[in-house]
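Hi C.,

You asked whether I'd gotten around to modeling the 166-residue construct. I have! Everything is below, sequence then structure, no commentary in between.
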Amino acid sequence: MTTERQQREYDAIVSEPAAIIVHCSDPRFQKAFREFINIELGMTEGSYVPLVISGGVGSLSEPLKLPKEFKFMKERIEQFLRRFNSIKRIILINHEDCRHYELIRSAIGSLFLNRVRDMMERQTIDLRAVSRTLLGLLGVKIEVEMYYARFTGSDRKKIVFEEVKI
């Protein structure tokens, strides 16, 4: 015997997003990302396009060594910019203890942390480099903002976001 299930309806959002937000898919950070975007950046669902992928900004950080990841991300950003003329900002967020960054380091080897103190410095440098790359590649007038999310205590239950300046 089959019983028919009542289909539930969900609200759609009619919107012209003002930004693309690129961040990692790490589940430990999702709640903090949503709250930061809503409270600190003042953006509600529908006012931005979330581009959530493992490693986030890390996928754009090594175009020569990781060309497939770079191409995928670049094409998605370009696609959203073509589709929504309302987008005027790209927001890039990296975070502490990113496991995808560890995979990138394993793939690239010792050169990955060459000339930097630690992974946080590498991620901050990547935010700036990716920002410059996007501004150069996209050829459109767009504002790029960068943030780094980190744990505040040894229990790793609270997260803060710090703006990264160019």
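If it helps when you're writing up: The chain has a mean pLDDT of 89.

Thanks,
B.
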